[in-house]
Task: inverse folding
């Protein structure tokens, strides 16, 4: 069996608020055999010894809001109209990017429907990507929601599922599960920002039907109206949640609804103000709108945290403007919004694992899988250190 000893590292496990120093960790055949003080360990004779001094061991990150078939960037919506051959190639690149950046788990929350150029099946393209990545230790573990489900007439992505009424909404959700989706993604923003496209009663029918199939429901809700109905319906997660109020946050906590934060999306939009000539980013009015929306979204995160809502992180890469190797940006954005670095790291590791139902995702423990990476610095006092990845345990 292959043995690797990481010697004299620090450890930030996402659970304890303080950094442990002087730590050695032994991996045997992909499993963490033990974690011991460096001055009390001895390497097995056959072990490869890695001098990890000056580095911190961190659990593999869990990106709970991603779109593996999209490249991201300032034209992210247009890119979903690219041919399936291109989108599938993009997914492979995204897998390598994320993996090298310490992302061990990805939760895809929407991909275009098309004929997969590899397996020939017509369904949401991320489902075939997930199947092909299975068993490849150098790529992230992937959960996929299939296609987005929109209210009919309000679909920014043409190759998605549309529903005109509650019966069609339930049928669309179950149809995605029949195609092999691991979870269902509802779109709770509509043409009128003040009115949710679906009521809590209608969404609750989907939640009940999907839960009976052993799957979970994610709800995109950038506006307060959609978030309110989604929380009342008891969805498993609200994605974005940029306009929560105290009442909605309380409902989320009471119903165990997780907030998947994507604050870094707006920070990337602000960067486009300097790097593009696109008016909604580069104009003074556009920048002011983005800054105001970011400020409101940070208030939402604080309200959720104060109410005891579980928070997980998402980059929104591909379906938003970020790239697949930028989940660290969301961690630093949560800290900028007021979370402690330990809480932000928890959101990017084990809290994400809880949301996807994987007990070992985002955790480091003896007897658990060796899914961790090493960075320069202490993410519990310097979250920017998550950008400084030295190596991962799963890549040569």
Result:
């Amino acid at each position: 069996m292959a043995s690797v000893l990481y010697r004299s590292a620090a450890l930030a496990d996402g659970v304890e608020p303080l950094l442990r120093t002087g730590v050695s960790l032994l991996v045997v055949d992909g499993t963490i055999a033990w974690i011991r003080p460096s001055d009390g360990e001895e390497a097995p004779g056959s072990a490869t010894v890695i001098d990890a001094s000056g580095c911190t061991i961190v659990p593999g990150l869990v990106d709970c809001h991603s779109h593996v078939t999209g490249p991201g960037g300032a034209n992210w919506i247009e890119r979903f109209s690219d041919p399936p051959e291109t989108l599938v190639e993009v997914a492979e690149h995204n897998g390598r990017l994320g993996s090298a950046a310490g992302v061990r788990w990805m939760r895809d929350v929407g991909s275009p429907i098309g004929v997969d150029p590899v397996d020939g099946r017509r369904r949401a393209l991320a489902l075939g990507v997930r199947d092909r990545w299975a068993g490849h230790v150098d790529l992230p573990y992937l959960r996929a929601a299939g296609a987005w489900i929109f209210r009919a007439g309000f679909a920014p992505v043409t190759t998605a599922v549309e529903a005109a009424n509650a019966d069609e909404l339930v049928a669309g959700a179950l149809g995605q599960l029949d195609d092999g989706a691991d979870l269902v993604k509802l779109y709770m923003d509509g043409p009128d920002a003040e009115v949710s496209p679906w009521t809590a009663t209608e969404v609750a029918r989907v939640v009940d039907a999907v839960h009976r199939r052993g799957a979970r429901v994610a709800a995109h809700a950038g506006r307060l109206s959609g978030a309110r109905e989604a929380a009342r319906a008891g969805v498993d997660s609200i994605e974005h949640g940029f306009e929560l109020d105290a009442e909605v946050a309380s409902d989320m906590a009471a119903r165990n609804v997780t907030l998947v934060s994507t604050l870094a999306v707006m920070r990337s939009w602000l960067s486009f103000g300097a790097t593009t000539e696109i008016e909604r980013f580069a104009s003074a009015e556009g920048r002011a709108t983005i800054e105001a929306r970011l400020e409101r979204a940070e208030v939402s995160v604080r309200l959720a945290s104060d109410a005891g809502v579980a928070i997980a992180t998402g980059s929104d890469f591909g379906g938003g403007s970020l790239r697949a190797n930028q989940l660290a940006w969301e961690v630093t954005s949560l800290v900028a919004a007021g979370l402690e670095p330990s809480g932000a790291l928890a959101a990017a590791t084990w809290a994400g694992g809880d949301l996807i139902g994987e007990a070992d995702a985002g955790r480091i423990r003896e007897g658990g899988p060796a899914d961790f990476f090493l960075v320069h610095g202490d993410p519990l006092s310097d979250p920017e250190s998550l950008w400084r990845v030295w190596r991962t345990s799963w890549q040569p």
